[in-house]
Amino acid sequence: MHTTALVLFSGGQDSATCLAHALEKYQRVETVGFDYGQRHSVELQVRLKVLAKLRAQFPQWAGKLGQDHLLDLAVLGQVSETSLTREMAFSMEHSGLPNTFVPGRNLMFVTLAAAIAYRRGLEVIVTGVCETDFSGYPDCRDDTMKAMQLAVSLGMDRRFLIETPLMWIDKAATWQLAQDLGGERLVNLIVEDTHTCYLGDREHRHEWGYGCGQCPACELRRRGWERWHEASA
Ligand code: ZN
């Protein structure tokens, strides 16, 4: 029976939902975030706000939520030419992947998370990767995560579990999961304080939260919100 977890927490809708899931399920939960020279540091600011609000508004979780770790991964900006880290327009590449793809990013995230989990004595690594409703990033696939679980467990001689609560659900179901875990209060927190927009837009407020409303990340978040409301109407 696992009781401790480390959540990869970026400050977005998906990872905030995963964090709530972990707080509901485990006794001790820590978080890790990565600063890799994102074009906008909005994500890094909102993640602290979300953590503070979770502590303040969910007394049943506050005592379980431990240390937050922020790792400097500027090196990712050096090895990738993507629209996440450079001033480039979004487009699709010949590979069929959007140019927001940073090759190997999640592999690196999981490896570093496992190193922290090892040091902190945490058994489960929780990540919001999703194969169902995403841009087709190959490092978000279930097989990739299973391979990573094996690699870090063998390589660190510690049996880690990589848990992916969102792997087989779409964005509408992700909103529903937040509702199930923390009710309207959690949904409101996610709408108001998590950030998904690639452009770092915190000016335009929509029903589903802040964002430019145009980029692929906003699009996905909006569509999920709409489908969720249609389904529950
Ligand atoms: Zn956007």
Sheet having the most strands: 5 strands, parallel
Helical proportion, percent range: 40-55%
Number of helical runs? Answer: 8
Spatial order of strands in the largest sheet: 3-2-1-4-5
Using only C-alpha atoms, the radius of gyration works out to: 17 Å
Span between termini: 38 Å
The secondary-structure element order is EHEHHEHHEHEHEEH
What is the structural class? alpha/beta
The name of the CATH superfamily reads HUPs
CATH T-level fold name: Rossmann fold
Count of discrete structural domains: 1
- Overall pLDDT metric: 90
The strand count comes to 7
The CATH architecture term is: 3-Layer(aba) Sandwich
Low-confidence residue ranges: none
As a percent range, the share of strand residues is 5-15%
Which CATH class?
Alpha Beta
Description:
By secondary structure, this protein is of the alpha/beta class. The protein has a single domain (4-232), classed as HUPs (Rossmann fold, 3-Layer(aba) Sandwich), CATH 3.40.50.620. It has eight helices and seven strands; from the N terminus they run βαβααβααβαβαββα. It has helices at residues 13-25, 42-57, 59-62, 75-79, 105-120, 142-155, 171-193, 216-232, and strands at residues 4-8, 28-35, 65-72, 124-126, 161-163, 205-206, 209-210. A five-stranded parallel beta sheet has the order 3-2-1-4-5, sandwiched between helices. A two-stranded antiparallel sheet has the order 6-7. Helix 1 links the parallel strand 1 and strand 2 (28-35). It is globular, with a radius of gyration of 17 Å. The model has no long low-confidence stretch (mean pLDDT 90). The chain binds zinc ion. Zinc ion (ZN) binds at residues 197-199, 201, 211-212, 214-215, 217-218. Zinc ion binds at residues 197-199, 201, 211-212, 214-215, 217-218.
